[in-house]
Design a protein that fits this description.
Shape: elongated
Number of helices: 1
Structural class: mainly beta
Number of strands: 10
Order of helices and strands: EEEEEEEEEEH
Helix content: under 10%
Mean pLDDT: 84
Length: 116
């Protein structure tokens, strides 16, 4: 857990959480311990990038910000405006560009959640 991004398969064993980056040709894998609070699920591939839960997006035309989150068993782009949550279907992701994520930029998420 050295603040480096790790991509791979998530695994939980007891109270421990791991990412398995890849399996070698003999079927063995190195498990890397991670904090469960920083694990994000892959949501969509857009603009030649992998987008994950917790990514911060900017709407290209109106310039407002949203965050990808899990909402009732589906992923949505959520805009918070004056305390109200406005959810957009993930299929509209083409109208957005990724500008960060909640772990690299917690101040921006805090600003987003204020929704002012």
């Amino acid at each position: 857990m050295d603040d480096k991004w790790i991509y791979g398969t998530y695994m939980k064993q007891g109270n421990n959480h791991f990412i398995i980056p890849k399996v070698n040709k003999n079927g063995y894998a190195k498990c890397i311990a991670v904090s469960k609070d920083t694990v994000s699920k892959f949501v969509i591939s857009m603009n030649n990038e992998a987008w994950f839960e917790g990514d911060i997006l900017e709407q290209k035309y109106e310039k407002w910000l949203g965050i990808i989150r899990d909402f009732v068993d589906e992923y949505v782009i959520t805009r918070i405006e004056k305390g109200n949550l406005i959810n957009f279907d993930i299929d509209s992701a083409g109208a957005f560009r990724r500008i960060g994520n909640r772990w690299d930029n917690p101040e921006l998420v805090e600003e987003l959640e204020k929704g002012e």
